[in-house]
TrEMBL record:
It comes from the Bacteria. Pfam families: ABC_tran (PF00005), BCA_ABC_TP_C (PF12399). Residues 6-247 form the ABC transporter domain. This is ATP-binding cassette domain-containing protein. It comes from Paracoccus lichenicola. SMART domains: AAA. CDD domains: ABC_Mj1267_LivG_branched. InterPro entries: AAA+_ATPase (IPR003593), ABC_AA/LPS_Transport (IPR051120), ABC_transporter-like_ATP-bd (IPR003439), BCA_ABC_TP_C (IPR032823), P-loop_NTPase (IPR027417). GO terms for cellular component: plasma membrane. Keywords: ATP-binding, Nucleotide-binding, Transport.
Length: 250
């Protein structure tokens, strides 16, 4: 039987009188790649901020492997294995790709000491960083300044620095945004690869990517879940069509 790794009930976040996230329930199964989709302003990023603890919820509960994590700070949630991909802005542009990953590994050693204590004592920081770069197709770019990397490689580096924390549940917010077709293909392959042995929840506007990658999809609109199921199930749901196109086209 599949285990639920992340269980969210009644998650709500108000900004003044406005509910950006309004009573959201989510069940994320161990090992799946789950998409969170919906039109602009639906509340997807706010949901991620609530899940990672970077924003406190107004109400609702979040359980990670049965333990309540709502109310814990970002660091403690990351320690328990739920990590969101770093944003490009958190990559140090003047560091090489290799040094960015080395730095992230040092951070990861602090947040996830047991894992990296054994790993790093075997291989050393440098080898571990090179291994991660290699996994992400970045070994040829190791000595390049992060700020000089092409856009798609920067996103791959962002994922590498996140993987350095060895998350069990990885949240990716629009991993393919702003990419050309070639980079999208590469990042899609990469997500499939890093998803082995982990759970991935991703916000993604590119629907062919969602269709190709994600086992299950949750659709948000105006802060509420309006559909859930496989891609084909939700794509055929009239409420989803209406949310994307507006009433006039439904
Ligand atoms: N700090 C904030 N203060 C006030 N309103 C906010 C704040 N953060 C988000 N919102 C509002 O909450 C709603 C949901 O925003 P959110 O960024 O979560 O949407 P999203 O689904 O990620 O959209 P997009 O697809 O455009 O990234 C929007 O109406 C947004 O303006
Ligand atoms: Mg967003």
């Amino acid at each position: 039987m599949t285990q639920t790794v992340l269980e969210v009930r009644g998650l709500t976040r108000r900004f003044g009188a406005f509910k950006a996230v309004d009573g959201v329930d989510l069940d994320i199964a161990e090992g799946e790649i789950h998409a969170l989709i919906g039109p602009n302003g639906a509340g997807k990023t706010t949901c991620f901020n609530l899940l990672t603890g970077s924003l406190p919820a107004s109400s609702g509960t979040i359980r990670l492997r049965g333990e309540t994590i709502s109310g814990l700070g970002m660091d403690r949630i990351a320690q328990r294995g739920l990590v969101r991909s770093y944003q490009i802005s958190s990559i140090f542009p003047d560091f090489t790709a290799l040094n960015n990953v080395r730095f992230a590994l040092q951070q990861g050693r602090r947040t996830n000491f047991d894992f990296w204590r054994s790993e790093l004592s075997l291989t050393g920081l440098n080898d571990a960083a090179m291994g991660l770069l290699d996994d992400l197709g970045l070994s040829d770019w190791a000595e390049v300044r992060a700020g000089d990397l092409p856009y798609g490689r920067k996103r791959a580096l962002e994922i590498a620095t996140t993987l350095a924390l060895d998350p069990q549940v990885l949240l990716l917010d629009e991993p393919t945004s702003g990419m050309g077709r070639e980079d999208i293909g590469r990042v899609t392959d990469l997500i499939r690869k890093v998803a082995a042995g982990r759970t991935v929840v991703m916000v993604e506007h590119n629907l062919p990517v969602v269709k190709g990658l994600c086992e299950r999809v949750t659709v948000l609109a105006r802060g509420q879940v309006i559909a859930r199921g496989t891609y084909d199930e939700v794509a055929g749901d009239p409420r989803v069509v209406e949310a994307y196109l507006g009433k006039a086209h439904a």
